[in-house]
Amino acid sequence: MDTHSSALKVMVIDDSKTIRRTAETLLKNVGCEVITAIDGFDALAKIVDHHPHIIFVDIMMPRLDGYQTCALIKNNRAFKMTPVIMLSSKDGLFDKAKGRIVGSDQFLTKPFSRDELLNAIKAHVPGFDIVPNVQ
Q1: What are the tens digits of pLDDT across the range 14-27?
Q2: Which segments of the protein form a coiled coil according to its record (predicted)?
Q3: Counting CB atoms within 10 angstroms of each CB, which of 7, 56, 67, 121 has the fewest?
């Protein structure tokens, strides 16, 4: 697959509108295509349609939490290689360990910075050159 043929597709799953908007703004400013979802169920439907290159998922969400969402993504043959980055306001060892168990590739603590988001993408999606739009 030629990853340079289109924009990097990034999915952000969070029940917080503020977090979704912040991440979306930061990522769109560097040329990413951003798909947002309000919870795991919303995300699973959109993943099939959009095939994101990387997924950021909040841990604490209603209905289907981030751990369950990550496990479902990683247990699907079509998406198991898609990097999943867990987002949490908690920075506990237990949370990180549980994230690893369900297959997450990295753990970011909220509030995250622009550089943390971009560094996670650079680390897990090789071949994409993210160049910030200078304003």
Answers
A1: 999 999 999 999 99
A2: none
A3: 7
